[in-house]
Amino acid sequence: MVARVVPVAPFDLVVFGATGDLARRKLLPALYHRLHDGQMPIEARVIGAARAQMDAEGFRRLAAEALDEFVAPADLDPDSRRRFLATLDYVPLDVTKDDDWQALADTLGAPDPERPRAFYLSVAPRFFGVIAERIAAAGLAGAHGRIVVEKPFGHDLPSARALNQSLARHFDEGRIYRIDHYLGKETVQNLMALRFANALFEPLWNAHHVDHVQITVAETVGVGGRGPYYDGVGAMRDMVQNHLLQLLCLTAMEPPARLRPDDVRDEKLKVLRALAPVDAARDVVRGQYGAGPGVASYADDVGDADTRTESFVALRAHVENWRWSGVPFYLRTGKRLRARMSEIAVAFKDPPHSIFAGAGGRAGANVLAIRLQPDEGITLSMTVKDPGPGGMRLTPAELDMTFAEQLGGGGLRMPDAYERLVMDVIRGDQTLFMRGDEVEAAWRWVDPIIAAWEERGERPALYDPGSSGPEDALMLMHRDGRRWREISA
Ligand code: NDP
Ligand code: BG6
């Protein structure tokens, strides 16, 4: 299928941390795809910056290796690869050293109001403040330059506030792009299309018709080489505070008046503010993966037999407003689970009265499942008549739409989230980026849960690798007379 793309204007993008894991694995391949698809013009410049001493040719070699490793061979077109590498430049730069910044200023030249300019901070968050300050001091951003910051955005509410303040000293909010890559995922954007471009679901999207919502982000990977980072963070900070709460917001928010960045973000913020405080002992389960056949335990992965960090969280939340009064939102995420699967499932109430009493089978409740990965798509579970002359027997069936098949005849490549997000930065569209007050509201809700855990000092419940998480997570649902959906690929 031919991709439908609108080219962006030629731009200058400075990537701080251009030799790092994120740049090599995600940013450079994302930019390559955008050029290959005709969206990134060859007049654009991507300027890598890091301490490693090399010239533009050296950086092109590093980028070429990254493309060869992280772009699927079928998508790696030699001509596009060559044209992409030609857009790259490099400046050796220690962001903490004043003297190094002049070379970047020389390479960039004076800001041109016609040419979008963005600074991607793919470095540790402790550098965010200093980079923002130096960009401003050297006048590199001009009046329109944008700054892009990665997660983690703070460790708790005070640190997130401090980070917001340090950026706000040099950039106004309209020029700060806080990445939550889940917002760039195709199906997450499709959730908005599903809800607000179709008349079918909105009348049912409330406490009168919805029994509960389940949001699952399950991974099969462990913490791998990220142990030192992850062990100081845990699943609550790494996944729930950002990705899962953003999914909850998009599911629960009111229709914004328009698809303008602040209209959408205002509505998400209202959801975060409407979240009822949870009782960490009653409403939240934390788990940690143990060892399995050929699989090391979490404690072994991070090299600390006594670690109390969670690699799994399940919780029940309530959005206290008219639309969602009494509807539980169950959130669950973890590493080393049975399958890699992310979905939002909206479970509707049972039909109010069954006329099929005595018939085989029963009319089950409808579930609308929005699959983020793998196989992005939407499934609606229905109850239908079992075919044949054997009387009125009921059976479950699914209306299943896989986007790649439905929209691309099987030939559509689903773009990575970073492709969309980086192009939105260049276009100046902040809709899919978190605003400072949203980030703070999410921490305000999450912090007391973590504080309660720290106070109790308990170890998370152990679960088997390859399972669905700890027993307690099943009990969280069972107590409410409900069940988690199967974690399956
Ligand atoms: P890495 O440690 O792999 O890379 C860090 C980069 O920063 C390197 O290019 C390093 O190059 C550069 N750097 C370090 N110190 C300086 C300095 N003083 N001046 C200039 N450059 C410096 O980190 P990641 O790429 O994994 O992560 C980058 C950011 O993205 C972090 O904030 C991380 O939390 C976030 N992130 C990463 C994800 C991932 O999948 N990797 C996912 C989500 C967020 P050099 O040593 O040559 O200076
Ligand atoms: C990152 C987390 O933000 O998201 C990782 O730091 C996690 O721990 C990753 O593995 C999951 O992203 P995705 O896109 O693979 O679902």
TrEMBL record:
Binding residue positions for substrate: H181, K185, E219, D238, K335
EC assignment: 1.1.1.49
Name under which the protein is recorded: Glucose-6-phosphate 1-dehydrogenase
CC terms in the record's Gene Ontology section: cytosol
Glucose-6-phosphate dehydrogenase NAD-binding domain: residues covered: 14-190
Protein family per UniProt: Belongs to the glucose-6-phosphate dehydrogenase family.
Record GO biological process: glucose metabolic process; pentose-phosphate shunt, oxidative branch
Alphabetized GO MF terms: glucose-6-phosphate dehydrogenase activity; NADP binding
Listed pathway(s): Carbohydrate degradation; pentose phosphate pathway; D-ribulose 5-phosphate from D-glucose 6-phosphate (oxidative stage): step 1/3
Binding site for NADP(+): G17, A18, T19, G20, D21, L22, A23, R24, R51, D94, V95, K151
Catalyses which reaction(s): D-glucose 6-phosphate + NADP(+) = 6-phospho-D-glucono-1,5-lactone + NADPH + H(+)
Pfam families: G6PD_C, G6PD_N
SUPFAM superfamilies xref list: Glyceraldehyde-3-phosphate dehydrogenase-like, C-terminal domain (SSF55347), NAD(P)-binding Rossmann-fold domains (SSF51735)
Keyword terms: Carbohydrate metabolism, Glucose metabolism, NADP, Oxidoreductase
Cited HAMAP family: G6PD
Main function: Catalyzes the oxidation of glucose 6-phosphate to 6-phosphogluconolactone.
Gene it is expressed from: zwf
Annotated Glucose-6-phosphate dehydrogenase C-terminal domain residues: 192-485
Matching InterPro entries: G6P_DH, G6P_DH_AS, G6P_DH_C, G6P_DH_NAD-bd, NAD(P)-bd_dom_sf
